[in-house]
Design goal:
alpha/beta; single chain; binds flavin mononucleotide; 32% helix
């Protein structure tokens, strides 16, 4: 049986040696304590995927500062010293099982729905997010000074992540959150150097990566997640198709990001109507960095195909929830369980059945 051969092969990402190519995709489970501290329940949940063979685990979206970055209540943070201490149970549990763990760091921008520090939201421009009701207050436009402060918030968060034992951080540049709001033409109407052309709309992200790399060097991995679609605009496509992909991936690759994690509804389908290329292929071509592919790679044969077309690693969201031991099942040639949605209902909080249990 050839399926799984490459999926289960090792990969060197910067200073991080991965035992296989299978990554747990970031998933918000709203299970942290109210003050943003990760807890033992989360540690046992991540440990379960490590025990199931996932070479790399990417955490829930985590907020970097005590300003406007938090997006939902009971979201974990990496915004203060208590948060650093709280995350250690998770990083230690995953490392003890021989896997690596990366913290996804997210600023929710205009789509924030719950923040315990401040009321209101911020964004590149004062434009109400799609889908928001008319009474929803528009976000406040960030000044250039405030942009620098947001960047500094991420830099401090990256240093705290290192203290907490993470092998790296992933900037959440997908799904309509703050970074993606800068990238997107209709949410970024700025007239300054951060708005207008695709090059200018990518500037916030490249400055952010450079500022973080400047402080953490090669000690930890600094990756980014990107998507065309958004939580409030599923079918969005970059207006200039492959040309935009070339500019965005080219600039981000040049900023020396360690990887680009690309998520599409189906990562094996062409990215634009007038092109036969997938985004996976376009990231590889223009980004010239490690590529993680995500989106409907439930079956090993499809995951293997993503590796064939240019991905170095693949990540799994819902299929991982249905199969905490997905990589072990690949090794044994066992069929995968289908995702039913049960563990996300009635709320997406982590369920008892998802916690690591000794000897199971
Ligand atoms: C419950 C849930 C929470 C999610 N939270 C995040 C998140 O915090 N950050 C993120 O980048 N994507 C998030 N996603 C998107 C997943 O990482 C992934 O891109 C999506 O599920 C598609 O991949 P799949 O087909 O393997 O499930 C979430 C998805 C689910 C199902």
């Amino acid at each position: 049986m050839t399926t799984g051969k490459k999926l289960l092969s090792t990969y060197q990402l910067g200073n991080m040696s991965l035992k296989n190519r299978v990554v747990l995709a970031p998933m918000t489970r709203m299970s942290a304590d109210h003050d943003g501290s990760a807890n033992d329940r989360m540690a046992r949940y991540y440990e379960s995927f490590a025990a199931g063979g996932f070479g790399l685990i990417i955490t829930d979206a985590t907020y970097p500062d005590e300003q406007y970055s938090q997006g939902t209540l009971n979201q974990p943070g990496i915004a203060n010293e208590d948060h650093v201490q709280a995350w250690k149970a998770s990083t230690e549990a995953v490392h003890a099982k021989g896997s690596k763990i990366i913290l996804q760091v997210a600023h929710a921008g205009a789509v924030a729905q719950g923040n315990r520090y401040l009321s209101g939201t911020v964004a590149p421009s004062a434009i109400q997010p799609l889908g928001a009701d008319q009474n929803h207050i528009a976000p406040k436009e960030l000044s250039v000074q405030e942009i620098k402060e947001v960047i500094d918030g991420f830099v401090q968060a990256a240093l705290r992540a290192e203290q907490a034992g993470f092998d790296g951080i992933e900037l959440h540049g997908a799904s309509g959150f703050l970074l993606d709001e800068f990238l997107t033409d209709y949410t970024n109407q700025r007239q300054d150097e951060y708005g207008g052309s695709t090059e200018n709309r990518t500037r916030f992200i490249t400055e952010l990566i450079e500022a973080i790399k400047d402080k953490v060097g090669d000690r930890i991995i600094v990756g980014i997640r990107l998507s065309q679609s958004k939580i409030n605009d599923y079918t969005h496509k970059w207006a200039n198709g492959e040309k935009d992909a070339e500019i965005i991936f080219g600039a981000i690759g040049k900023a020396k990001v360690d990887y680009i994690h690309i998520t599409e509804y189906n990562s094996l389908l062409p990215a634009f109507e007038n092109s036969s290329s997938t985004l996976v292929e376009l990231v590889k071509k223009y980004g010239k960095t490690t590529v993680i592919a995500n989106g409907q790679l439930d079956q090993p044969v499809d995951a293997e195909k993503a590796l064939e077309i240019g991905a170095d690693l693949i990540s799994l969201g819902k299929p991982a929830l249905a199969n905490h031991d997905w990589p072990i099942k690949v090794a044994k040639g066992l069929p995968m369980d289908e995702f039913t949605g049960e563990v996300l209902s009635p709320l997406p909080t982590i369920k008892d059945s998802e916690l690591y249990k000794e000897n199971v």
